[in-house]
Amino acid sequence: MYETFKKHEDVLDIAKEERPGNGARQMLTKVVNSLSSKMEVGAPMAALYLLQNPDHYTSHQFVPFYWRNYFNYVQGQWSNLLDFAEPVEEDTNIIPEDPDVELDDAPECDDTGPTLEMTQTHTETVQMTRKNGYYLAKSNTDDYRFRPSQLDRICLYDFIQCSIKHPIRSTRHPRKDLRWFRLLEDHPHFSSHAMALDPVRREMHVPHFIGPSLPRRDGGNREDYCCAMLTLFCPWRTGIDLKSADITWEEAFNRYVFSERQTQLMANFNMRYECYDARDDYGAIVKSKGSNDDDDDDSDDELGYADDGENAEDDDEYLAMVLGKAASSLNQSNSAIVAALKSAGWKIGSLAKGTLNNLKLPTIAIDSALRSSAWNNIIKVEKLRAWRRKIGGFLVDSEAGEIQNPTGREVRNDVYILSNTYLSKDFVPPDERWRGLMSRVISDFKLNPGQEKAFRIIANHACCIAPEQLLMHLGGMGGTGKSTVIRALCQFFTKREEEYRFVLLGPTGTSAALIGGSTYHTFLGLHTGKSTGGTATAVVEEVRE
User: Which residue intervals are annotated with compositional bias (Acidic residues) in the record (predicted)?
Assistant: First the structure.
């Protein structure tokens, strides 16, 4: 952004402006274009950043939490303490242990004996600042370790959620509904900042754990898990506060009384690993089942057939009776779709019988010199021919042989004017009870004006008698409430007992799961068998077929 500003700063020259403010608009446009090209973000998102508007909307805010720094600090203090406590045979000037003396305040020894300057066994990122001619190092753990004395009983997790730090000399006044306290004198910001706790943040702010995954409760190193949980939920200022030297981390964990909320949070931490275990178990079951199916196929191949040129596989009726796993699943799906269409009022009649009769397997002459590429071409041609016969069977009158228009309306492939009756907010459906249902659904989901408008258009259209097909696009950035509109429509159609009138599809598994639907490939039967492993062109051809 700075490079763009310096490169085009001549556009801000007032003397060269044709209109007042034109130079500023040009500079803003150049900065947005530069951000769009370098950051790979769209121009609307770049404009949102420049206007200091959020690029997404969430119900909660996430606070960055580098939990490993606190864990390493606690472990490092105990490791250094144990290393210092181990006696050395050649050491004669050993400092007597004084329980009332802090490690940081202990006196230094002379050069002939050991000192309390311990080698850190962990790394920690610090921020260097200069104040009154001195350089100060501030780490991520300082805010909690040197928090005000009035907040001694606050655990680390609640501190990350609820703590607010405010500069004392800031022109922006602090919140008057909170109690502000001074940090301890050892904190680098002792004279420049104050701190307060906001209990309301507990409901709206969630710590975002950044770094390695938390230790597992039911696996891995039990001592690391107990140390991590005590670091999060037991108040401390130094690592020595969490346990005594004569007990282990597990014993200290078992002795500490966690609150009901803390116990629930620890269970939530482990839910991620439980999901991973369930995924791995399901994958193992599928894999073992697939291997058993392969063994059954191999046993069938070992039976052998008569080599007299009259095997039963050459008979179409035999092939129709013996279907593979993928073909059987596809037939079941087709039968379910036909049943759903019939229940929706789609009268297939004699067309379905004619279509099924036309879908007989073709007779192909097999030559020993036929190459694989030629065989693939034959398969593609026959698949395309079968698809045309299948689709044509529903559109062609079996008696007259003419193409039918199921809707009886004129087919228009152009822009044309629609009736705006159901687009209006004042639309009155033929049945008044559906109007009350719309209002209740809008109230239940708390739809904003934009969401309500999209919902009413679709709901009004569904209440019309014999309406034309509604082709509607509902767009927006992430978090704007598109899925909420879809869930509201699902409830609306469910109350009308018309779930069959819509299908929820998504391009990816995540998007489909968010709306409770299926992916395009699953619903349309794409890639139902083994992957072809072909190029992009081959995949496109397969979708077209």
Answer: 293-311
Element holding 59 (H helix, E strand): none
Q: pLDDT tens across 381-438, in order? A: 888 887 777 666 555 444 444 545 544 555 555 565 656 667 777 777 877 788 888 8
pLDDT tens per residue across span 1-44: 667 777 777 777 777 767 777 778 777 887 777 766 665 666 77
* pTM over cut 0.85: no
Burial 285-300 (b: 16+ CB within 10 A, else e): eeeeeeeeeeeeeeee
CA neighbor of 517 nearest in space, from 488, 479, 490, 540: 490
Radius of gyration for the alpha carbons in the chain, expressed in angstroms and rounded: 36
Q: Is 447 helix (H, G, I), strand (E, B) or coil?
A: coil
Higher pLDDT, residue 57 or 413? 57
Q: 505 and 512 in contact (C-beta within 8 Å)?
A: yes
Give, for 209, the enclosing helix (H) or strand (E). Answer: strand 205-209
**Tokens 């998504």 sit on residue:** 506
Query: What is the 8-class DSSP label of residue 298?
Result: H
What whole-number distance in Å separates Cα of residue 145 and Cα of residue 140? 10
409, 466 in Cβ contact below 8 A?
Answer: no
For residue 400, give the nearest of 356, 345, 350, 342 by alpha carbon.
350
Find, among 524, 504, 522, the residue nearest to 514 by Cα: 504
Centre a 10 Å sphere on the Cβ of residue 63 and count the other Cβ atoms it contains. 14
Chain segment 99-116, per-residue pLDDT in tens: 444 434 444 434 433 333
For tokens 């199916």, name the residue: 293
| Percent of all residues in the chain with a pLDDT value above 90, rounded to a whole number | 17
Residue ranges of alpha helices (H) inside 322-473 are 325-343, 350-358, 372-395, 432-445, 449-463
Residue 208's DSSP bridge partners are: 64
DSSP β-bridge partners for residue 136: 129
Residues in CB range of 59: below 8 A, 6 or more apart: 204
Task: Match 């019309």 to its residue by tokens.
Answer: 464
**430-463 burial string, b = 16+ CB within 10 Å, else e?**
eeeebbebbeebbeebebeeebbebbbbbbbbbb
Q: Count other Cβ atoms within 10 Å, centred on residue 161.
A: 21
> Tokens representing 261?
């909320």
Single-letter code of the amino acid located at 491 = Q
199-203, 269-273, 533-537: the lowest-pLDDT one: 533-537
CA distance 376 to 366: 13
Report d(CA 247, CA 258) in Å as an integer.
18
- Give CA–CA dist 136/120, Å, rounded: 19
